[in-house]
Design a protein that fits this description.
Helices cover 25% and strands 29% of the residues. The protein has two helices and five strands, in the order αβββββα.
Length: 99
């Protein structure tokens, strides 16, 4: 039990802490797994980022580009059955819009 706690704490230290009140970099909530991927391809808590939402209940993967000013100019969706390669291709394409 202690080893699992230490592992979780080490993993949490590896990620950037949100600078905005109520900010986060990844979460699992109500059948959805969400994360923010920054311009360099790493998980981030900051803008700009690509917001990736794996929604099991809707059986889809949603991608939303969030710019520095909070606008969302691009949104794409793949079916929940999409392969990891397909998901990674969309992320790579959308990351180009952040630079």
């Amino acid at each position: 039990m202690l080893a699992a706690k230490e592992e979780r704490e080490a993993r949490e230290r590896a990620y950037a802490r949100p600078t905005r009140k109520g900010g986060w970099y990844s979460r699992s909530k109500a059948g959805k797994i969400e994360l923010f991927i920054g311009p360099n391809g790493d998980i981030t808590a900051e803008r700009p980022h690509v917001h990736v939402i794996h929604d099991d209940s809707a059986s889809e993967v949603i991608f939303v580009v969030t710019m520095s000013d909070g606008t969302h100019p691009i949104r794409k969706t793949l079916p929940g059955s999409a392969s990891g390669n397909e998901v990674n291709e969309v992320i790579a394409d959308l990351l180009r819009h952040l630079k």
